[in-house]
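Private note to self, pasted from the team thread so I don't lose it. Backbone tokens:
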């Protein structure tokens, strides 16, 4: 199996069987995101402990395979990380989706980086970049409590 096939398999798996698709019990941060261009919607639920470590993260929503796969992968990778680590991973992912060829963070294992890299192909399709980044921008909003609902259409990608 070549890398492109592996990436497609990961996206299809997470798109059809999203991880953490539920509402976190006793969440203390949340945010909603919407991509009106394609109809993707996501609601991120986050439970941070007193040390700002992610005890639990989940999402509810609907959307295309890329949007759902991205949210699923994100929740898998972020669980157990500290807030500052989460922000570093988010920034690295968003830079990779826009311009870089690889992820630079040292906070993820190689297999975790491979999961994220499977979304790198969306660079070639600007409309799909918004699908892949919707949950990530929504997570930033949940952490910072900057807005109740983000509209990805207004985000500069």
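Design output:
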């Amino acid at each position: 199996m070549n890398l492109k096939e592996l990436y497609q398999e990961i996206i299809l798996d997470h798109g059809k069987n999203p991880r953490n698709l539920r509402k976190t019990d006793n969440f203390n941060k949340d945010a909603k995101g919407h991509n009106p261009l394609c109809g993707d919607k996501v609601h991120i639920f986050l439970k941070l402990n007193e040390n700002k470590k992610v005890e639990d993260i989940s999402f509810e929503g609907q959307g295309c395979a890329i949007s759902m796969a991205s949210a699923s992968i994100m929740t898998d990778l972020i669980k157990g990380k500290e807030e500052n680590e989460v922000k570093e991973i988010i920034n690295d992912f968003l830079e990779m989706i826009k311009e870089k060829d690889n992820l630079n963070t040292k906070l993820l294992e190689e297999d975790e980086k491979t999961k994220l890299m499977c979304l790198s192909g969306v660079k070639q399709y600007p409309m799909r970049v918004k699908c892949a980044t919707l949950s990530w921008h929504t997570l930033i909003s949940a952490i910072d409590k900057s807005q109740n609902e983000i509209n990805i259409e207004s985000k500069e990608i």
